[in-house]
Amino acid sequence: MKTKPIPALVMLTAGVIACAAGIIGRMELLDFTKMLLGVLVVFYILGCIAKLIIDRNFKEMEEDTTDGEDAAADGEEEPEQAQEEKEEK
Predict the structure, then answer these.
(1) Neighbours of 54 (CB within 10 A)
(2) Which residues are within 8 A (CB) of 9 and not within 5 positions of it... i.e. 6 or more apart?
(3) What is the pTM of this model?
(4) Nearest-angstrom CA–CA distance, 40 and 64
């Protein structure tokens, strides 16, 4: 899964919401700029943390599925082959 754009998407989504809140609240320009900068920095960091968590979970899931599929496939093929050999005899 491509997780590279997650921090940017989280940050920009929070920025859009903060901009809308600032415009609706008729904030002063300096206060609005400080608030927007703070929101963007905080949510970029939160997006990076979310990306790391997602990357770790998908890595563990991929390792679990490949290990489980190989073992299940090997275990299932042997009885079928043994049954086919019995039928041929």
Answers:
(1) 13
(2) 47
(3) 0.67
(4) 36
